[in-house]
């Protein structure tokens, strides 16, 4: 079924070119069904790119999905046109009385700072707490996963000696769990981060379940509250060329950056990218929507608590 997106969102035309079925609000209002309401708090600097990546993965769903975009007042995006933000994003203050079936909170380019040093830390932790009573299931990605684990459960993050950068093999620790329905024994995920959370800290917290890890990349997925919270340290949503763009950008700036591991064909950037994570990225998001949002959320959305 299609995604219900704000009229004229750039992702609509971009994804139509990929033959992904999306509709705008005007058409969606003529369909007599109760859509799943998903809110995305997009903290990434390139908003339109992240919107398109996430919408692409949310498109394979059994029901109509209504997407809303949230922003925080205490930070102004420098890399996205202000007209785009005004047209498609709403301040948290104006959304706090709403309830949602699902929520996605993205990464942010602040991971090398202490959490409390982030200028919008107070506002974002308020949103973390709000989500617990206003959202059926919340998916925290990359920095948001580290921030959520720290805020809710006191799990610290640690700096890495070198950036975790590339495509890494992962395995499931709970293979029969519904979030992994259809997964292979080994699956691949992009990572791009300077910090990590550690297995030993996760295992100390009774309310956390470690679901997946990687020998090279460490902790990948942690669950809490029977699936009402998922913390995912990688970027399954990345498009094929995202790491390539990051790599070439940092090279051009003269920054210390190693070539992304296990990414290029024969480790040669001139030969292009070997995409090994697309199928499992689609499974991750469709399983989350199906088993932890659609099958768990009440028909009357106001009953979420």
TrEMBL record:
Annotated site (Important for substrate specificity): 192
Location of the active site: 142, 235, 237
GO molecular function: homoserine O-acetyltransferase activity; homoserine O-succinyltransferase activity
Residues involved in substrate binding: 163, 192, 249
EC number(s) reported in the record: 2.3.1.31
Locations listed in the record: Cytoplasm
The keyword Amino-acid biosynthesis belongs to this UniProt entry's keyword annotation: yes
CDD domains: GATase1_HTS
Pathway named in the protein's UniProt entry: Amino-acid biosynthesis; L-methionine biosynthesis via de novo pathway; O-acetyl-L-homoserine from L-homoserine: step 1/1
Record keyword Metal-binding present: no
InterPro entries, alphabetized: Class_I_gatase-like, HST_MetA, MetA_family
Record-annotated site: Important for acyl-CoA specificity: 111
Keywords: Acyltransferase, Amino-acid biosynthesis, Cytoplasm, Methionine biosynthesis, Transferase
GO CC terms of this entry: cytoplasm
Any one of the GO BP annotations: L-methionine biosynthetic process from homoserine via O-succinyl-L-homoserine and cystathionine
Catalytic reaction equation(s): L-homoserine + acetyl-CoA = O-acetyl-L-homoserine + CoA
Entry's family note: Belongs to the MetA family.
HAMAP family: MetA_acyltransf
Job of this protein: Transfers an acetyl group from acetyl-CoA to L-homoserine, forming acetyl-L-homoserine.
Protein name: Homoserine O-acetyltransferase
């Amino acid at each position: 079924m299609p995604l219900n997106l704000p009229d004229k969102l750039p992702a609509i035309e971009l994804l139509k070119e990929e033959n992904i079925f999306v509709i705008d609000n005007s058409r969606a209002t003529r369909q007599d069904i109760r859509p799943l309401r998903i809110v995305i708090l997009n903290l990434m600097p390139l908003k339109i790119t992240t919107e398109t990546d996430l919408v692409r993965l949310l498109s394979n769903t059994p029901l109509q999905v209504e997407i809303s975009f949230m922003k925080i007042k205490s930070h102004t995006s420098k890399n996205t046109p202000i007209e785009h933000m005004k047209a498609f994003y709403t301040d948290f203050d104006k959304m706090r009385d709403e309830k949602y079936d699902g929520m996605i909170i993205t990464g942010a380019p602040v991971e090398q700072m202490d959490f409390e040093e982030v200028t919008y830390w107070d506002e974002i932790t308020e949103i973390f707490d709000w989500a617990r009573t206003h959202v059926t299931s919340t998916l925290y990605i990359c920095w948001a996963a580290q921030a959520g684990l720290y805020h809710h459960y006191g799990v610290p993050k640690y700096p890495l000696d070198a950036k975790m950068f590339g495509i890494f093999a992962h395995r499931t620790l709970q293979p029969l769990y519904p979030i992994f329905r259809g997964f292979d024994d080994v699956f691949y995920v992009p990572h791009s981060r300077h910090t990590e959370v550690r297995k030993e800290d996760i295992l100390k917290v009774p309310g956390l379940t470690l679901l997946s890890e990687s020998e090279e990349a460490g902790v990948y997925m942690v669950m809490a509250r029977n699936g009402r919270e998922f913390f995912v340290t990688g970027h399954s949503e990345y498009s094929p060329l995202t790491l390539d763009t990051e790599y070439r950008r940092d090279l051009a700036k003269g920054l210390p950056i190693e070539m992304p591991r296990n990414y290029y064909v024969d480790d040669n950037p001139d030969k292009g990218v070997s995409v090994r994570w697309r199928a499992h990225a689609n499974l991750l998001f469709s399983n989350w929507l199906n088993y932890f949002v659609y099958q768990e959320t009440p028909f009357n959305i106001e009953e979420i608590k």
